[in-house]
Each structure stands twice: as C-alpha cells, then as structure tokens.
Amino acid sequence: MANEPLNELLRFYPGPAVDPVPPWLFQFLDRAVLRDLAVISLERTRAMADLNNRAVDQAIAVLRKAKF
Questions:
Q1: Could you report the per-residue pLDDT of 10-61, keeping only the tens digit for each?
Q2: Residues 6+ apart with CB under 8 A from 59
Q3: What is the DSSP string of 10-40?
Q4: Hey, CA dihedral for 58, 61, 62, 63, is it positive or negative?
Q5: In whole angstroms, what is the distance from residue 47 CA to residue 17 CA?
Q6: What span, in angstroms and rounded, lies between the C-alpha atoms of 51 and 45?
Q7: Are 51 and 17 in contact (CB under 8 A)?
C-alpha cells in the first residue's frame, strides 16, 4: 500500500483536457466564431477543473477519515 501511487489509492484518474479544434483552423475563421470557440474551450476547461476539484475534496475527506 505504501508503494502505490496516490492516484491509484484515491481512484483519481483525471482525463486529459483536449481542445478539439485544430490550430490551423483559426486563420480561416472570423472573430465572432473564434470568440465562440474560445468560450466553448474555456467552459470545457472549467468543467474539467470542477471535476478535479471534486476529486480533491473527496481525497481530502478520505485522508481525514484514514487512521494511520
């Protein structure tokens, strides 16, 4: 147990934050579309951060209950 990675112990497996838009596409889009894509990207980043924050809160709760 002491040698297991913390992610394994806490069952914390965050997924990668991947932007689905290829970078070359930006040169062909107008500013309104770019703004909308930026908002979508930031919303995805926020959602991932929220998931990570919940996982951290759960990990803290588990560690507070742990008896060493």
A1: 777 777 766 676 778 778 888 998 899 889 989 999 999 999 999 999 999 9
A2: 10, 12
A3: HT--PPP----S-GGGGGGS-HHHHHHHHHH
A4: positive
A5: 10
A6: 10
A7: no
Residue with tokens 């894509």: 37
CA distances 8 to 4, 13, 41, 63, Å, are 7, 8, 29, 14
CA angle, 52 as apex, 47 and 53 as ends, to 5°? 95
Q: Which pTM was predicted? A: 0.55
Distances in Å between the Cα of 53 and the Cα atoms of 10, 13, 15, 57, 58 are 14, 12, 13, 6, 9
